[in-house]
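Task 17 of the worksheet. Students: predict the tertiary structure of the chain below and write it out as structure tokens. Keep your answer in the requested format; marks are given for formatting as well as content.
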Amino acid sequence: MLNMEGRILESNVKKMAEALKAGATMLEESCPQCSSPLFKLPSGEIYCLTCNRRVILVKSDEEALETGTPAALNLLEETLVKKLLELEQKIRVEEDTKNLQNHLNLTLSYLEALEKIRRIKR
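Model answer:
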């Protein structure tokens, strides 16, 4: 973590020194979260030792899609399908035309989102 003056705290400097002694390499890139230097560990993984988390570096938006979003897209797709099933049950019993129209509009929005997700995943 950084202190009020934007300096890396002493405890984090010690972590970084220990990582270097253990064979890690300090990279030019900094953590997108806290701006501390990133380290490539001997295992090949890139870590922010300040945030204590793994970081994936990408060179382009396309590469970001390939590396980070498939899991997120799968979860989002699953959630949208569940929401569509819930809406289908509401539409089946709804008698108020305004509520029915709202449900149908939401259904169309979910279907459009699903279509885009599936297009990206191809």
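Marker's comment: The chain has two domains: 10-54, 61-121. The beta strands are 25-30, 37-40, 46-48, 53-54.
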